[in-house]
Amino acid sequence: MAQSMRVMNDGVGLHVELAGPEGAPGLPILCVHGWPELAHSWRHQLAHFAALGRRIAALDVRGYGRSDKPWPVEAYRMSVICSDIAAVIDALGGRAILFGHDWGAPIVYHTALRYPEKVAAVAGLSVPYAPVGDVSFLDMARQIYKDRFFYQLYFQEEGKAEMELGGDPLALHKIYFGISASKTDRAFLMNKPPSAGLLDGIAAPERLPDWMPEADMTVFVRAFREGGWRGPINRYRAQDLDFREREPVKGRRLAQPHCFIGGEFDIVRHFVPGVDLYADPGQHADDFRGSTIVPRAGHWVQQEAPEVVNRALEAFVASLEDVRPAAAA
Question: Does the annotation count 173 as an active-site position?
């Protein structure tokens, strides 16, 4: 039977899915999804680690699914979302191993920086860790993509992307298929003018890929139909606000044990033209325990190739025998 709990953080309710025996030995695992996803994105990992006897959880990040959806952009600052993760960790016992994919990866990295006593280890999927510097990512994107479309810049105007995505019943089909390994044109990095829409030039699949059965797609479609797109997109809009709050994390390395997993064909790998961002994903970590580049996988790596990802995550967790199981009294 599925288990869940609701965690409150400063008036915001967070829906958390739970699996595995309560009170299981070892640190609990908390999974954090990205855009446009849900706790359901981690269904394969919850089943795998629960079968191993581990306690594992995945939350709907604020703005998504069954979690609350504050309206203001400032409610989606990285510092605020990290405090959500810290609140869920406390509800799980006070210390946890974090897995994060897409936006979830920077969220778990920054939670590890801001709450080191609560985070025992960090696995990042799709997005490697890079310290905050003196140039914001959006400013860098404005230079790199000044003459062509880039989805994160398109998201900055409030209401525009919400109208496009909310008006297309196949938006999620196009997004999931368009940046998976099933598709080869890397849809979000298409060469189209800055005035284009996100979905321009992206066709819906004739049939869903094997890794996304209709029953699972229905879970995502229903959640976004009911909850809308503003909360999820506000995370992109909050990036300049994050930059203004960078001092506590600026230039810092990851101290906790860390591993990286990415798909061979993930578009994130080539966000910066001419640079392979997956070439050295542990360069800013003090205790890097290896990377796994999953052959023939795209951006949705833990859904597209769950067996390979689960093996890599299981090996990472097994390597943490030297990590104390609970916070010191």
Answer: no
